[in-house]
Amino acid sequence: MEEQLRQAQKMEAIGQLAGGVAHDFNNVLTVIAGYANILKMDLTSESAQYGLADQIAAAAERAAQLTRGLLAFSRKQAMSQQRCDLGDIVRRVQQFLGRVIGEDIQLKTEILPEPLPVQVDLAQIEQVLINLAANARDAMPGGGAITIATGLRDGTGHGHGEAAGPRAVIIVADTGEGMDEDTSRRIFEPFFTTKEVGKGTGLGMAIVYGIVQQHKGNIRVSSKPGEGTVFTIELPLIEGADALEPALASQPLPRHG
Ligand code: ADP
């Protein structure tokens, strides 16, 4: 568990660092490109200074592309997929999530007895649950409860472009301060945060969204100010409960680099 927790914290730190640096760096680049373009306006296009200002603007644009790539990296990594039971994933995460959320917050799980076979990148799905739990914790400064539940949805009748076929469902609910509609709408935007400067990067939910998309799943949020928040994630269910990673929860944790 030690190693797993360290890895999760490392990923959170890398994400924060990469996201934070890229964000601030982008602001600097905007200033550089802006002034270079103002310089160009004051110069005739034949002058040597015009060419230099043009090169500054082009270099700033290349650097902006790099920071966009950095952001994409902090959200999307190569997938390494395993066939797992979603219930096993929750049982496994439960073992170290307590350390993430602290002692004032109760962690409850409601896991369907039958296996829910999904094909996922385990580390990424764990990252999703860690990010959701960390936000839930932040929304409950006076304590409260987080419930993680699994479920099954048959794939019929929902329409509106949603993928057909049965879906494995995972719900993360908290009893925290909740959000108004405006906030709920914006939470998946990179850099959207309501936390004070230095506390939030606004990347956690963007990362969650990116991972769920990569898994061909979908996520929605339902929240009421003062009452709490419920995130519902649906992932494609795969055929057959055989050949799943055996007893993930009791399996030794992989060693990451
Ligand atoms: P950060 O946590 O750095 O602010 P996130 O992308 O993880 O960035 O979250 C963005 C915003 O979404 C948060 O600042 C908060 O306003 C809101 N939010 C996310 N999860 C919850 C939750 N469970 N309860 C209340 N607000 C939440």
TrEMBL record:
Protein name: histidine kinase
Species for this entry: Geomonas subterranea
Superkingdom: Bacteria
Domain Histidine kinase stretches: 20-239
